[in-house]
Amino acid sequence: MLWKTDPTFYPSPKLAMRAPVEKLAYVAALNANGGNHPDALVVVDVDRGSDKYGQVVGRVDMPNVGDELHHFGWSACSSALCP
Q1: Is residue 56 a contact partner of residue 23, using CB atoms and an 8 Å limit?
Q2: Is 72 exposed, middle or buried (0-12, 13-18, 19+ CB in 10 A)?
Q3: Could you tell me the pTM of the whole model?
Q4: Which long-range contacts (CB under 8 A, 24 or more apart) does 8-14 make?
Q5: pLDDT in single tens digits along all 83 residues of the chain
């Protein structure tokens, strides 16, 4: 069986830089100090033309304290996922 990548991935960083500019950033908000709050995934508006530019516009908390979010990428680094 031949492994095929997701067709939305870019085969190189150079090609990813030609892609449309991102309007949202998905950011892992880690509880690095071990407090009583779970990690979260936050959505930041990165559209320079938006009135909410630079603000958190969404948030999803992990269900349990101690759940760990790891790495994930934007278009620019998705080429690392291509064979």
Answers
A1: no
A2: exposed
A3: 0.66
A4: 8/78, 9/78, 9/79, 9/81, 9/82, 10/75, 10/76, 10/78, 10/79, 10/82, 11/79, 11/82, 12/79, 13/76, 13/77, 13/79
A5: 677 767 777 778 888 888 888 999 999 888 877 778 888 999 999 999 999 999 999 999 988 887 777 544 445 455 555 55
